Amino acid sequence: MSLHFPETFGDPIPFFRDGVWHIFYLSPRQHDHEWRHISTRDFLHWETHPVAIAPGTGTHDPDRDGCWTGSIFEDGGLFHMFYTGYREDRPDMQVICHATSTDLIHWAKDPANPILRADGVRYDLSDWRDPYVMRVGDQYWMLVTARLREGLELRRGCAALATSPDLKHWELQPPYWANGLSYSPECLDLFEWQGRYVMIYSAHVEDNSTHFRVAESLAGPWRAPAIDTFDGAHFYAAKTAGDAERRLLFGWVPRRENESDTGDWYWGGSFALPRELVALPDGGIGVRCPAEITSVEREALPAVAQARYGDWDFEDGWIEAKACNAFAFATIDGLPDAYLVRAQLSLARGAREAGFVLHTTPDLRKGYQVRIQPGQISHERLPRKFWTSPAPVRPHKLDLTQPVEVLIFVEGTLVEVFIGGQVAFATRVYDPTGGSLGLYAQDGCARWEHVRIERL
């Protein structure tokens, strides 16, 4: 059974109710998006539902060319879908539309659509999408991905605000959040969690990452923690759902043109594994893989490591590389196409780095390196070439001198790494011909404990 939902996936719009995680998502047809709908209780077994909302067929329909990202909001037993209607032949191509449902399955569009447009005075007509609706006191708030009419060209992005007394009549307000940080903050999300407010947005022009800000109240100020992203540049459009007990983050991992390590990154790709939000001691927010996925009993595969280079110790329950001022490399051979690596990894004080090499060979001629270093993890294809773009880097604050849990999910071209119960990193690998898993250390000793390989 595939761990990742197999269909090509666009922006997720998650909604949690009565123990069920509903994931609405955009279809992969970029110029004809519809909202599709799947649901699960355990992230292992999925139910596919009918298409929730599709582009209109009428000449004047405001969503004739696509139904784009938005949000789901429940009020008085009625479910409200707020989404972006797209139509290419209008100056205001993006407008806000509305639909309702009594069961989350069957949806009726609002005949008053579009219910909200950019004014063309304060807000630019070209970017007006991704509505997120919430209740604040006796009002309803709608945040909208927008751009101001004035300001630096690449820095006019803002979270526009509209308010309503009844979810029907909306009044534009001054921008809720506008500080020159983004071309347009996409897929906005705002919620109260762990005694604070968290605002999430994705920055497609700046770094293709999902960012967050925290505040003590909805009045702000919205502060950026030292690490203000949940993942790297290959995990995008992430939004959350949950209840008072826990909150989960859902996003997608893009595909590459021609299914190649050198191809351009596409919009859309694969539904990433969910990430559970974790409050960190320094006030930041980390993510971990949910227990629904990690606690599953899977077939264990032989995990016998063989030294290929350098000085190694192999003992029952642990493997140690002695690479002081040197390099050490070992392999676990004969792995399938889809597997999970579990291990506890620690680095000696002062060690430069250690990690794993996916799809490698005993001579280390090729592979994909997961580099774990003090302060950062990164992913690189071997052999490195100086003309390729820099390796994506994920910062962290883990103490690597103490054992940290490492989970690496490898399924087809997808790789998702979780470290220390607070750091995640997703990427793609398109040349899986090497059938070995490598362990390595450089300029210092490293120890792997409780290494386990499981078939996915």
Draw up the topology in text:
Blueprint (H helix, E strand, L loop, with lengths): L11 E6 L2 E7 L8 E6 L5 E8 L13 E9 L2 E9 L7 E8 L6 E2 L13 E14 L2 E10 L8 E8 L6 E7 L8 E8 L2 E8 L5 E7 L20 E7 L4 E10 L8 E7 L3 E5 L5 E4 L2 H4 L5 E2 L3 E5 L1 E5 L2 E5 L4 E6 L5 E10 L5 E8 L6 E7 L2 E7 L10 E3 L8 E8 L2 E6 L3 E6 L7 E7 L3 E10 L1
Antiparallel strand pairs: 1-2, 2-3, 3-4, 5-6, 6-7, 7-8, 9-10, 10-11, 11-12, 13-14, 14-15, 16-17, 17-18, 17-19, 19-20, 21-35, 22-25, 23-24, 24-35, 25-34, 26-31, 26-35, 27-28, 27-34, 28-29, 29-30, 31-32, 32-33
Description:
With 456 residues, the protein is mostly beta strands. It has 2 domains: 12-293, Glycosyl hydrolase domain, family 43 (Tachylectin-2, Chain A); 300-455, Jelly Rolls (Sandwich). It is 1% helix and 54% strand. It is built from 1 helix and 35 strands. The strands form 7 sheets. Strands 21, 23, 24, 26, 31, 32, 33 and 35 form an 8-stranded antiparallel sheet that branches. A 7-stranded antiparallel sheet has the order 22-25-34-27-28-29-30, with no helix packed on it. Strand 9 and strand 10 (139-148) form a beta hairpin. It is elongated and about 70 Å long. The termini are close together.
